[in-house]
Amino acid sequence: MTAMGVQVMGSLLNKMVSTADDLWGLRWEEIPDPLKCYALGDIKFGFITYNVLAGLLLRDVFPDPDVLCWYLESDQFCAVTWFLDWILRSLEGVEVYQMAEEEAETRVAMIRSLRFRDDRDKLESDTTPLLKVWMQVLGSWPSVSSGGCRILLQAREWFGVQSEILSKVQVDWSNEVVFRLPRVSDKDYLRFGLKEEELSSDSWKNPVPGVRGMTRPPGMHAGFLVFDPSVDLCSRIGELCSALGRNQRWCILEWARMFPEKFKAFFARMMRDTEFRLYYKMIYDCMRLSYRRIFDIVAPRVARVELGLAQGVLNTLAQETRLLEKSRKETALREARVNWLTELSEDSTFRERSKWREGIPELPVWRRRGGQKRSYSKVQKPGKDQRKRLRLARQKPSSNPVPGDVSAVDKNAAESVITEKNVPGCSGVTRGAVCSRSVVSRERARSRNKKPARVLTYDEIIEGEDTIPFPDNLEFRFEIPEEVEGIELF
């Protein structure tokens, strides 16, 4: 206790006073009041020392309380309770191997000095499996006595590795704490939307003098948003995020985590500024929860945003309740249909199986959602075919072009003039004949718009006189071969 008192609290314990004049064997009611105060202080000293050392260990392993509480979906009290339970389970029954502790120069070597005793009452050669987990989750930043972790992104990035390691530990934690496997979307929150190549891990090893708390690495490529929530407009904040090439949501969340003392100014602006409130209402809950996880107190609430978000949840709840009731009714009818068909399949002595539809319960005919049909604007952007017709109409030549005169034709249609001069070997083409693309296009359009001929029935073909008129101007000529003419008939 003397060593802990000097190192942890900086106090010296008077051993002469602790003897209490040989009065420790008396009952509590019989000892003098000064000795009672000393006894209470002796008990409180162990409690204070335990809290200081546990807090230092917590700060060394998890420097950022935001990510731990976010991952466990709890407040600081539940997170600290789980951490102390982990310490208790890890240190229960272990002893310090004095030789290994004296030679230890790192935190990992200090953990290796904690060992169990075997059946022969000798210390084991290695540490326990649960203490090996501590060796895996320790970060590469300096210890608390050397300054601790100074880079916020380093602590948050390493927490992804820590959560994956802890999720594989087969331990039933207290308070029903469950470490789930990390999701892909977790990295966005841990990195504030930054990509892996934007995180320069080499700069984490550089010193950061003159900085209070955790900060950003000096050599980081990605930009950082800096604004004043009391005066800056939403458009100005958006322009700054666009200049940085980053998502506005992640920029604001990183800014709030780097400057937690400005949370209240952000909430105060949302209370008095309608535009600011409507523009950032979607990140209100995330900012509110982050404030709760960092300061462990309830964040200032914006009443109008709270009502809007709560109403949205209630509307969705009412809709899902209606759909659930609808599915329950249909499920009951389905069960009745299955029971009826099961009875029919087992016993069809007095029932006609071909008329199974007559006795089976009918399913409800749900009415589809009503509403107006989708209407389109009358002024629409011309489609591909319409653009082609407009282009061909602009290329249409004059009504009476002079043969060989290209000037009478549109400039765009001049390329379509075909003559003997520009088409070698084409003697059958009349000089100056114009073969315009627009003419071909009009013929194609006319053939497309032309209605197909109706197929006549048998009666119309055979008996319909008006439908198929017989021509009267036909000339019939019979040619008799010479061999037939030379034949004499007797």
Record the SSE blueprint.
Layout: H1 2-9, H2 15-18, H3 33-61, H4 65-72, H5 76-91, E1 95-96, H6 98-103, H7 107-112, E2 114-115, H8 129-137, H9 152-167, H10 186-191, H11 234-244, H12 248-258, H13 263-272, H14 274-279, H15 284-295, H16 303-346, H17 384-394, H18 437-449, H19 458-462, H20 482-485
Antiparallel strand pairs: 1-2
Helix pairs in contact: 1-3, 4-15
**Based on CA inertia axes, which overall geometry fits?**
elongated
Low-confidence stretches: 398-436
Beginning-to-end CA distance, first to last residue: 159 Å
Oligomer: single chain
Fraction of residues in helix:
40-55%
| Biggest sheet statistics | 2 strands, antiparallel
Q: What is the spatial order of strands in the main beta sheet?
A: 1-2
Mean pLDDT over the residues: 80
Proportion of strand residues: under 5%
Tell me the series of helices and strands, N- to C-terminal: HHHHHEHHEHHHHHHHHHHHHH
Radius of gyration: 45 Å
> Structural class of the helix and strand makeup?
mainly alpha
Secondary structure: number of strands:
2
Question: Helical region count?
Answer: 20
Give your account of this protein's structure.
This protein has 490 residues and is mainly α. It has 20 helices and two strands. Helix 1 packs across helix 3 and helix 4 crosses helix 15 (284-295). The chain has a two-stranded antiparallel ribbon.
Summary?
With 490 residues, the protein is mainly alpha-helical. The protein is 48% helix and 1% strand. The chain is built from 20 helices and two strands.
